[in-house]
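Z., the sequence and structure:
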Amino acid sequence: MDLVDGRFTVVGLSALEVLDSRGHPTLQVQVRLGDGTTAVAGVPAGASTGSREAVEARDGDPDRYGGKGVLGAVAHVEGELRELACSRPWNSVEQLDAVMVDADGTANKSRFGVNAIVGVSMAVARAAAGGQELFQALRPPGVSPRLPVPHFNVLNGGVHAGNALDFQEFMIAPVGAPSFAEAVRAGAGVYAALGGLLRRAGHDTGLGDEGGFAPQLERPEEVLSLLVGAIEAAGYTAGREGVAIALDPAASEFYRDGAYHVAGQVLSSAEMIERYAQIVVDFPVWSIEDGLAEDDWGGWAKLTERLGDTTQIVGDDLFVTDPRIIAEAIDRGVGNAALIKPNQIGTVTETLEAMRTCRTAGYAQMVSHRSGETCDSFIADLAVGTGCGQLKSGAPARGERVAKYNRLLGIAADHPSLAYGLPEGVR
């Protein structure tokens, strides 16, 4: 699974504390190879995080950015990680990634910080692509690149917005679009139509962290009705033949004392599953991510058994892009798809290994941004190169979200023979 064919050397490595899309500090990492090639990577950061995620290095100084500064992570990049990277020639990015993980020596990347490690890994992978496009360098053996179905987060709740919605993300997915360009056009059209519906109904059209509207609504079914109306108002069919709906409730955020607290109701795991079952009947929802809490493994198995034959059941907080956890879930019949976030696990190599684990077992994959983003478009190339067929990067608004969609538009224009859409076998 080498990410580059041939030896390379790193002769320069630096980092800078910059701001992410929420105004919080993050890292920008720059690498210079021996042949003069340079590359830069922007590191994302999440707000809704799984407890098993790799750990960021944050300074904790309350006088700087409320303790969220990353000068320590910068020092790790420019200190031990630079010394390591520049110490020898490398046969592959995979080899360098493995050495960084070994040098960190912790189970959760807490010594250097996942933000330091993943920044180096992404920057080196980009630089080492050489004359290839990044998506081509990231392509696993035997996999055909594919333009993904974009999942636009058009209405935000949970920790991504200051409203009363417990469900975190309401997404539209132009599954039935004939091309990626037409999928983007559909997403932008539905987003605009939704804004018009909200304004006419007297709702606030302020935006959440990921660019979706954040009105003061409470019941998820209210939002779903609005989305169907917006899809139809934009001239599309609501459903898999046109524009479908995907949910990320992020249920760990509203799971307390062994129950799910949604819109004033307290629901057991079984009752939450039945609510999803009714939602799938009543609305064109094709995918549900983190429908149950990350520790509710028994509930996840029941949810998968109940809806998995007709609906994509995606694990995020549960799986945290960890190949070992994904393999355990596969063995236990939990979920049928995994969300993929490189900064959850820490290196490009481990990310590709998580996707390989899914692919081998017939699990779908959706590559994802984070709530705190930069204008780096690495995940767009990752989605294309791995042929997973799915990407979520927020609303079709805000520069850090649109950067990923615009990169995909560029790939589509430059490579018109690339297929678009869900791979064969994805529900």
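The chain has a mean pLDDT of 95. Residues 154 and 212 are 4 Å apart (CA to CA).

Let me know what you think.
H.
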